[in-house]
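hey
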């Protein structure tokens, strides 16, 4: 139960940060670092990260960022599959 709340929250935060960074990319000002965005994805916010990328069309042409996103996604699929299988 706590994991599902955490998973929901971290994905919402990642989505908001992706939108915030896109807004600041257009208007100028303080930007969210790529490191923080990837850290949020590694922390479990990969669904919010992908949703934010597609919704805001943000970081879609940044190949290294997309590779790291796929790595985060694959890692979390393995982790979730492991816990589902051994539950």
């Amino acid at each position: 139960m706590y994991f599902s709340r955490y998973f929901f929250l971290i994905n919402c935060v990642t989505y908001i940060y992706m939108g915030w960074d896109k807004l600041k990319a257009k208007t100028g000002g303080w930007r969210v670092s790529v490191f923080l965005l990837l850290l949020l994805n590694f922390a479990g916010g990969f669904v919010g990260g992908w949703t934010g990328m597609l919704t805001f069309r943000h970081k879609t042409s940044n190949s290294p960022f997309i590779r790291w996103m796929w790595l985060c996604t694959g890692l979390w699929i393995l982790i979730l599959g492991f816990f589902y299988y051994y539950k």
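The CA atoms of residues 3 and 29 lie 35 Å apart. The chain has three helices and no strands.
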